[in-house]
Write a structure and sequence with these properties.
15 helices; globular
């Protein structure tokens, strides 16, 4: 079908040269195990429990995505074996997790991936998976369905040219579409995940048409964050002022998707408090943007058993412990990095966010975005309210890279904010 919904007249030239920055394969360091656990367990640490866990089963991947935060490719040398993975499933259920999403790398390249799915379902938790879909064929789709997988989300980031350029492999788009239909034929619910960046943004209306035609039940979108390989090519990243074009487009697409019965889910870094916030955050209990859920309702697991409050956060400074060394419940309750958002105060904010009208509600928004940009959370220029406020003053913010990323999984560069006239 065609919605007749056209994308905006994008005012910037298509980014990324065909030649990518020369990088060796990511240097994968063994787990440091996180800092020593704290002695006390506060009431608030028992009150908060993760309802949703995202688990990177393996770093092994058959794509070479330019935006990959984990710099996936080869497997980690110290990934959890199947026995350790199954024990972690037990601990997740005991901690109160309700849904586990398997990611990678590419989750289906982990030996025993279907056994992990079956164990998740047997423990009473929902089991979902995200894939790039390069080799998710009919056989794998049937195996996933037989194991109990409930929904498969396929990553699609534009038309064939834009998608393949981002995914680093010719034919990746065709394979992703094939995976979507193979999953549907196997009886799985299907969804689509999309990175929003300077290559994909103009293609969002076309992706909406595709997922409606395919019968997808949901579409999750998030801004591409300058972590990992995306930090090597900052021209891929939207500028904060691009949100002025993005949010009206998302609002139009939301109405189209609602009419088709497709749920649009905006990732935590797509925000905050602009005129479309209530429309785009209808699925949230409060109906508007809130502070980062990392370490409060969300849990992230790296392939080697490192535990973080959010799967996307940099390994450095955000790993709370490793399940080979400590129990999951001890890491959740007694690890300082996972406590960050539980009693967070306004005084942790800086820059524009420190004086914002919504500071007490938002607390700087996405920890991942701010940390990837500046090395610390608490000031997030990727905010619709903020861009609108500056635009009323004839100003805009631009982020520019000032130092490169070191080249390890979940690493980041350093950026600075340039405040300039909106006509610049």
């Amino acid at each position: 079908m065609s919605s007749g919904t056209e994308g905006p007249a994008i005012s910037w030239r298509e980014p990324l040269s065909e030649d990518r920055p020369r990088r060796r394969l990511a240097l994968i360091k063994p787990s440091a195990g996180g800092p020593p656990l704290l002695d006390d367990v506060r009431e608030i640490d028992r009150d908060y429990r993760p309802v949703y866990a995202v688990w990177e089963l393996t770093l092994r991947c058959d794509l070479s995505c330019r935006h990959c935060g984990s710099r996936a490719g080869p497997a980690r040398p110290d990934e959890l074996n199947l026995g350790e993975a199954l024990d972690l499933v037990r601990q997740l259920a005991e901690l109160g997790v309700r849904e586990v999403t398997l990611i990678g790398g590419e989750a289906y390249l982990y030996p025993g991936w279907t056994e992990v799915i079956a164990a998740i379902r047997a423990a009473g938790m929902d089991s979902t998976m995200v894939t790039g879909g390069r080799a998710f064929n009919a056989e794998r789709a049937r195996a996933a369905a037989a194991a109990g997988l409930q929904s498969l989300a396929v990553s699609i980031d534009g038309d064939a040219r834009a998608h393949d350029k981002q995914r680093g492999v010719d034919g990746a788009y065709a394979a992703a579409r094939s995976a979507l239909y193979a999953a549907r034929e196997a009886g799985l619910q299907i969804a689509v995940n999309t990175q929003i960046n300077r290559l994909s943004m103009a293609h969002l209306p076309g992706i909406a048409d595709l997922l409606i035609d395919a019968g997808a039940h949901g579409w999750q979108v998030q801004l591409t964050v300058p972590m990992g390989r995306a930090a090597d090519e900052p021209e891929l990243i939207l500028q904060p002022y691009d949100l002025l074009e993005l949010f009206p487009m998302l609002a139009r697409l939301k109405h189209q998707l609602d009419a088709a019965g497709v749920k649009l889910v905006t990732g935590n870094n797509v925000g905050y408090f602009g005129p479309y916030d209530h429309l785009l955050r209808q699925a949230f209990p409060c109906g508007h943007s809130t502070l980062c859920p990392a370490g409060r309702h969300v849990l992230g697991i790296e392939a080697n058993g490192d535990i973080k409050g959010c799967p996307s956060l940099p390994t450095e400074s955000w790993v709370g412990g490793n399940v080979r060394e400590r129990s999951l419940i001890d890491i959740w309750e007694r690890s300082e990095p996972l406590r960050f958002n539980r009693e967070r105060e306004k005084n942790t904010l800086w820059g524009f966010c420190a004086s914002c009208y919504y500071a007490d509600e938002c607390h700087g928004g996405c920890t991942w975005m701010a940390t990837s940009l500046f090395g610390r959370p608490g000031n997030n220029p990727y905010c619709h309210h903020r861009t609108l406020e500056l635009a009323r003053q004839g100003l805009r913010e631009r982020v520019e890279r000032v130092s490169e990323a070191p080249g390890t999984p979940f690493d980041h560069a350093r950026f600075q904010i340039v405040l300039e006239e909106a006509s610049s």
